[in-house]
Specification:
alpha+beta; single chain
């Protein structure tokens, strides 16, 4: 009679510790912290590798937790549903605090990429991040975050169908440029492809 002996795997022989999957709430928070636009439940579920129903229930729990309806205090941010998707936002109570903090940061020169992205938004607003990326033919995620942090652009509204955020410039930009309105911007160069013939929503290089 042969003894029932289990052959150890290579990882076990090497003394490796099996990977433990992080709790669903932590995985969801990790995704929410890095997104620039609201993410739908289906896309979020795919990102964290969990059923939509479980993700929906966890989202509801996080909303209550951040609002102080759980065991902890209310947070300075909230998890809000906008345009059919979810995203973390600073609470409205702290808008002035954040604006003052951002405005008080030491000014720094904008990179060429930031200047080009800012110009596209100024002339084409309201415009989505993907539309700006299509015009510039490069990924603009980090540049948009920089312009938002500097208070030069702002989120205007979310598209009702796609949930994509539309961006526009702020009064702060007008002050920096020394103009009273966008009507005072110089005519855009005829040599610049400003997307007047429509946006190409293809793959961004």
């Amino acid at each position: 009679m042969t003894d029932d002996v289990t052959t150890p795997t290579a990882d076990e022989e090497a003394g490796a510790v099996p990977a433990v999957e992080a709790p669903l709430a932590e995985r969801i928070e990790a995704i929410l912290l890095i997104i620039d636009e609201p993410i739908g439940l289906v896309a979020l579920a795919a990102a964290v590798g969990s059923p939509v129903a479980a993700v929906r229930q966890t989202i509801e729990t996080l909303v209550e937790d951040y609002d102080g309806r759980g065991s902890g205090p209310r947070r300075g941010f909230e998890l809000r549903e906008v345009g059919g998707g979810w995203r973390l936002y600073v609470r409205e109570d702290h808008d002035s605090l954040v604006a003052e903090f951002v405005g008080g940061q030491a000014p720094a020169r904008l990179s060429q990429a930031a200047l080009e992205t800012l110009a596209v938004i100024a002339y084409k607003q309201p415009v989505t991040r993907s539309q700006v990326a299509s015009i510039r033919a490069v990924n603009v995620d980090s540049v948009v975050r920089t312009l938002l942090a500097r208070g030069l652009i702002t989120e205007l509204f979310a598209d009702s169908e796609t949930g994509a955020i539309n961006y526009g410039t702020t009064d702060s930009l007008l002050q920096h440029l020394g103009i009273n309105s966008l009507d005072e911007l110089p005519p855009i160069s005829p040599l610049l492809d400003d997307g007047a013939d429509g946006f190409d929503e293809g793959v961004v290089r």
